Amino acid sequence: MKNTDTAKKSERAVLIGIITPKLKPLQAAEHLEELRRLAETAGAEVVEIFTQRVQSFNPATLIGEGKIEEIKTALETYETKMVIFDEDLSGSQVRNLEIRLPGVKVLDRTGIILDIFAKHAATAESRLMVEVAQLQYLMPRLTRAWTHLSRQAGTGGTPGIGMRGPGETQLETDRRLVRNRIQELKRKLKKIEKARALQADNRNDIFHVGIVGYTNAGKSTLTNRLTGSDVYVEDKLFATLDSTTRKLYLGNGESIILSDTVGFIRKLPHHLVETFKSTLGVAAHANLILEVVDASAPDYAEHLEVTHLVLNGIIDKEIPRLRAFNKVEKLDQQARNELLENYPEAIQISAKENVGMEILRKRLMQELERWKEKRISDKVKESETAEGWTNEE
Ligand SMILES: Nc1nc2c(ncn2[C@@H]2O[C@H](COP(=O)(O)OP(=O)(O)OP(=O)(O)O)[C@@H](O)[C@H]2O)c(=O)[nH]1
Ligand SMILES: [Mg+2]
Predict the structure, then answer these.
(1) How many domains does the chain fold into?
(2) What's the pLDDT band for 7 if we cut at 50, 70, 90?
């Protein structure tokens, strides 16, 4: 086919990965492959990937002078105006790199993730969260060049009258405007969160399962498979941003609720996790966490680690967990046996090929029964305490 529309529309990009002594070569390659997928999901066409081995980062530009020259040549060869770093850049690193690479857009991993989030945000809540995250990202990158920020930040009007303190520079005014806007958005988010907590309270008598896991693990495919719903599935990162809640009938008149949530990814900056806490909070209110893992990903062990780190950051109570290794139809018998040996508690499924669904339903039923029993014993304890039967001296 001749020159497709998408090829014409997408912006070309050069990727840059840093290999630190801690990183094994295979790991580094996987990280870069993930960055390529992120860039493509954001709509870029990757034309070249550079890596640089470093003992320590160059504080001014992250990478060395020689590498910058190499990149400059590649940008000219490919007529490209965009570089994307796999590491997060500080505001001054972006500025220094933009001076060294004039006219080139310098982005980092978080910038790309935010771009994808903005594309996929479908509800008022996720749009608010994306805006907070974008403003927080913007803050350290603000320079004197950023004037008229009040309009850019969506607050309307021009900065200045009634807004500027005595002797305050434009930069300080801009920072203050961004901070105010962040506060305002956070207040709105708090309200939505409160409404959600209330909803969760009302649902107290139904067993709620939060489906979590690394992005692209197959969470939405599994939700669709189990509940016959039509949640958006795509072989792209962060296809899901807003959580979806569906009812699942387990048989014997039992039903539970399943929530499909936003996926995790490595190097997720702390402020992003903080901001998306309420979307992820759906999982924090769950009675069971169903962790979906792409068993066919070569770096699935790292996915497990990342998932746990993020989960521990957002969940402050003990919630039972069930792990399902997905996409196992892609593994040979030996790999499946190894999984079983290393993770005897986990189940193996293929949401796409409808494998292991009966076992999963059975495990969900068992967890439901366990939860019911616990509720009864908790209630008994509660009434005993209320009547002063226990802990009497
Ligand atoms: N081979 C195989 N592919 C699967 C399976 N389950 C899901 N997929 C594919 O994996 C890709 C991602 O699936 P999703 O269900 O969108 O994954 P997700 O975890 O919801 O991803 P995000 O919402 O982006 O975090 C899609 O191309 C699915 O078709 C499976 O069991 N086997
Ligand atoms: Mg999804």
Answers:
(1) 2
(2) very low
What is the overall mean pLDDT for the chain?
84
pLDDT in tens, 67-124: 999 999 999 999 999 999 998 898 889 989 999 999 999 999 999 999 998 888 888 8
Torsion of CA 145, 150, 156, 157, to 10 degrees: -80
Query: Are 375 and 264 within one domain?
Result: yes
pTM reported for the whole predicted model: 0.84
For ligand 1, is residue 238 a contact (CB within 6 Å)? yes
Q: How far apart are CA 60 and CA 266, in angstroms?
A: 24
Asked if residue 334 and residue 216 are part of one domain, the reply reads: yes
Q: Where does a domain end: 114, 141, 175?
A: 114
- Give the nearest ligand 1 atom to 217 CA: 19
| Runs of H (alpha helix) within 245-356 | 270-275, 277-284, 300-314, 333-342
In sequence order, which residues have a C-beta less than 8 Å from that of residue 63 and are 6 or more positions away?
Answer: 16, 18, 52, 54, 71
Segment 206-219 mean pLDDT: 94
197 alpha carbon – ligand 1 mean position (Å): 29
